[in-house]
Amino acid sequence: MAASARSFHTRSTSFPSESHPNLAGVQECLHLVKAWEACPSGKAPLVTRLGHLKDLYASIVVFLQLPLTQQALCGKERLVRELMDDYLCLMDACGLVKDSLAHMREQHQTLQSMLRRGVTGLESGICAYQCSRKRMKKDMAKCLRLLRNMEKHISSSNDNLDMVDQVFNDVRAVTVSTFNALSSVISGRKAAKSIFSRLLSSMSSKSDEDDVGEIEKADAAIFRLHDTSLKTIRQEDAREAQKLMEELDVSLREVEVELEDVFRCMIQAKVSLLNIVTGC
C-alpha cells in the first residue's frame, strides 16, 4: 500500500495538464501578446502589448509558486537553469531599452528648454543629441545581437517539448519579439517603421500609410534646426520639432512605465526559479 502511494506521488510531480487553471492563465496571457501582432497597427498600441507581457510574467510568477509546479521542476533542473539564464539576458535587454528611452526623453526635454529660451546654445545641444543618438543605436545593436542569439537558442530547442516546456519556450519567444521591436524602433531601423506609430495610435489620427517612424520624424525635425544652410531657424520648424518631441515624451513615458513593470515581474519570476533550485 505504501509502495502504491509512493508511486502515485511520483506521478503527481509531472507538469499540470492543459486544463490546470493556472497554466490556462499563462496561456491566455500568452495568446493576448501573440494576438497583438495580428492586429491592424492603428488599433494595437505597443504599450498594450507591453501591458499583456507584464500580465504574462505575473501569471508565470503565480504558476511557479504552486507546490505542484515546484515539485515537477525539481526534476528538470537543467530547464530551470536555462530559464534563469534566459531571463537574465532578457532583463539585460529590457534594461538597455528602458535606459535608452529614458535618455531620449531627457535629451528631448533639454532641447525643448533651449527652444523656449531661444537659439542660444541650441547648436551644441543638437550636437550633444546627435552623439547620444549614436550611443543609443550602439546600445540597441548590442541588444539586437543578444536577442538574435536567444532566437537561435529558442528555435533550436523547439522539438519534442512537453506542454509546459513549450509554454515557457513561447514566453521567451514573444518576449524576444517585443524587445526586438522596441530595439529596432529606437535604432530608427526601417524594418520597424510601422511599429512605433502604434504608440501614438490612441492619440493621433495620422494615416497608417505614413511609413516614417515617429522617432525618425522627431530626429529629422531636430536635425533640420541644425541645418547650416539656414542663417536663422524658422519658427515653423521650431514649433514642429517641439510638437513632435512633446508627443514622443508622452508616449515614451507610457512605454517606460510598462517596461519597468515588466522588468519587476521578470525579477520575481527569476527569484521564483532560484527558490525552486535551492529548494530541491
Automatic annotation (TrEMBL):
One of the protein's GO biological processes: root development
Domain of life: Eukaryota
Biased composition (Polar residues): 10-20
Chain positions covered by the region annotation Disordered: 1-20
Protein name (database record): DUF241 domain-containing protein
